[in-house]
Write a structure and sequence with these properties.
Helices cover 74% and strands 0% of the residues. The chain has 346 residues and is mainly alpha-helical. The chain is globular and about 65 Å long.
């Protein structure tokens, strides 16, 4: 397999890991509190802050303000953090495992596979959150393994991998559209599910996804030393004692679990797993463990920002988060294709 390209033009662009973590943490604190406090006429910024700190100190607050803050905004912020981290790290591990910077959960059909199986299982088990989550995990892993198998049969290259992913993604999306058209009642909002968002957040799915995402992130960190060797090439990695096939398969499974957990919570959010890992490699050194940490942190920041904008930018209307991601991710993907045209094997 070809070596994954470094998007940075020169080593001078690299920024120290501690500085990036500090920046990401500072942005996280600001965005988290804005997500909680930035409000509408129903609950202003001042009222939100007053209610939050009153809850911490144990003081009594208005019931309506407490419900909006603790039952709506706080779970939504938590979901954005989890899904942003999961999708970003999923994309990073997938790109490194497949040696392709154009790979991402949304691009190569992982999100579509998870979404299709969620809807299929919802036809038979409409009220069981655990089944919905298991279906998302199974669909995500099946989709990425299908793409990997097709690309191997067609000849492993960056172009065949992306084209295989596009084909699988289109097939999964067609299946989703058919189910939603024939059985629209299985999703609360078919537009929100297709684009992705947190308007109809299911807390049961969030509780199930939380441990899966944490365990998968831990698994990615444990696997990071082996993934680092992929950058040397499969033969060199094998010569250094790495079981390349097993390590790559584990990476794909972890990526699928992260993407599946995210889809079970927020629907088909695209481009997070493509955009954030590639931006991180612009400024960070090729250290998988550190980049997983950065992807988790900056992915959470990014999705918090997108959800905040979706909620307040056009108030009283709320746009699906996926619209912002599409507006940002599509031009970025096109730029990647053009800028890396000479390095892609045809």
């Amino acid at each position: 397999m070809a070596h994954i390209p470094d998007l940075a033009a020169s080593p001078a662009r690299k920024i120290d890991f501690k500085i990036l973590v500090l920046f990401g943490s500072f942005a996280f604190c600001i965005l988290f509190f804005l997500e909680l406090f930035a409000g509408t006429k129903g609950l202003s910024f001042a009222d939100s802050a007053r209610t939050f700190f009153a809850q911490i100190s144990g003081e009594n607050t208005a019931a309506s303000a407490r419900i909006i803050l603790l039952k709506v905004r706080l779970p939504r912020a938590f979901a954005a953090i989890l899904c942003g981290s999961a999708l970003s790290v999923s994309g990073l591990i997938l790109q490194l495992s497949l040696n392709n910077s154009l790979a991402g959960p949304g691009i190569i059909g992982v999100n579509g596979g998870a979404g299709l199986f969620v809807l299929l299982f919802s036809l038979f088990f409409p009220y069981v959150a655990l089944v919905r989550s298991l279906a998302a995990f199974f669909g995500a892993i099946l989709a990425v393994l299908t793409v990997y198998f097709i690309s191997r049969q067609a000849g492993v290259s960056k172009t065949t991998l992306v084209l295989s992913g596009v084909a699988v993604s289109s097939m999964m999306t067609a299946g989703i559209d058919v189910i939603i058209t024939l059985k629209p009642e299985i999703v609360a909002d078919k537009v929100a599910f297709s684009l992705g968002g947190f308007q109809n957040l299911n807390l049961s799915s969030l509780y199930i996804a939380f441990p899966v995402i944490l365990l998968s992130l831990a698994g990615g960190l444990l696997l990071s030393s082996g993934i680092d060797l992929f950058q040397l090439g499969d033969e060199t990695a094998f010569g250094l004692g790495l079981n390349v096939k097993r390590c790559r398969l584990l990476g794909i499974i972890i990526s699928g679990l992260l993407a599946g957990a995210s889809v079970s919570v927020c629907g088909l959010l695209g481009f997070v797993g493509l955009l954030i890992p590639n931006l991180i490699r612009l400024f960070s050194k090729n250290d998988t463990k550190r980049n997983i940490i950065l992807s988790s942190l900056l992915g959470a920041d990014f999705l918090l920002l997108c959800d905040l904008l979706a909620r307040i930018l056009f108030f009283p209307y709320e746009l699906p988060v996926g619209l912002f991601l599409s507006c940002l991710g599509s031009p970025f993907f096109i730029w990647m294709l053009i800028s890396k045209k000479k390095r892609l094997s045809v």
